[in-house]
């Protein structure tokens, strides 16, 4: 079973538990903290993936490190240790956040621009694309990319809206090349 399929299964299970208990926001916050700890502490992953360390030692360590998280989040981590699937924590968190956002009508977008967007520009993009995509909210992650020359490139999931000067110049070049043939 691939990692993404396994991560999705665990994320779906945790999502359903959270939905039943109406604590999806809390679970998301906790999972983001867990993800952050895994991202910034390579020794944690090394320890949890070490075959010389017993499962009980790993579980006790996780109980100590994540003592402030809910029982549902902790049980998920302990289950991942039991099933030797600690390596899917990052994917599990991503899947969970995606499911929560989709259930709430929230999408995340990467907006590439030549400079940092102002608050008004960000709000305007959120409003236009939320209506266009029939969602409630669009969260924007602004990425400054001077190579686009001007305009915007917006990526929401697998959809890309490209209105950059760089792309327009490429299209113009292609049209001129094909017109001269």
Automatic annotation (TrEMBL):
The keyword Cell membrane applies. It holds the Pfam family OSCP. It comes from the Bacteria. GO terms for molecular function: proton-transporting ATP synthase activity, rotational mechanism. GO terms for cellular component: plasma membrane; proton-transporting ATP synthase complex. Keywords: ATP synthesis, Cell membrane, CF(1), Hydrogen ion transport, Ion transport, Membrane, Transport. It is found in: Cell membrane; Membrane. The keyword Cell membrane applies. Signal peptide: none annotated. PANTHER family: ATP SYNTHASE DELTA CHAIN (PTHR11910). F(1)F(0) ATP synthase produces ATP from ADP in the presence of a proton or sodium gradient. F-type ATPases consist of two structural domains, F(1) containing the extramembraneous catalytic core and F(0) containing the membrane proton channel, linked together by a central stalk and a peripheral stalk. During catalysis, ATP synthesis in the catalytic domain of F(1) is coupled via a rotary mechanism of the central stalk subunits to proton translocation. Belongs to the ATPase delta chain family. This is ATP synthase subunit delta. The gene is atpH.
């Amino acid at each position: 079973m691939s990692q993404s399929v396994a991560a999705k299964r665990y994320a779906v299970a945790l999502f359903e538990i959270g939905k039943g208990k109406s604590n999806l926001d809390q679970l998301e916050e906790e999972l983001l903290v867990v993800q952050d700890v895994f991202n910034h502490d390579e020794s944690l992953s090394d320890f949890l993936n070490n075959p010389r360390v017993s499962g009980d030692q790993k579980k006790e360590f996780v109980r100590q490190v994540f003592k402030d998280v809910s029982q549902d989040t902790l049980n998920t981590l302990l289950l991942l240790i039991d099933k030797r699937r600690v390596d899917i924590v990052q994917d599990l968190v991503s899947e969970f956040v995606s499911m929560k956002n989709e259930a709430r009508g929230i999408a995340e977008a990467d907006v590439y621009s030549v400079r940092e967007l102002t608050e008004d520009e960000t709000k305007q993009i959120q409003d236009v694309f939320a209506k266009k995509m029939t969602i409630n909210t669009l969260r924007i992650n602004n990425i400054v990319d001077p190579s686009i020359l001007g305009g915007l490139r917006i990526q929401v999931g697998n959809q890309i809206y490209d209105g950059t000067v760089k792309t327009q110049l490429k299209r113009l070049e292609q049209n001129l090349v094909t017109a001269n043939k």
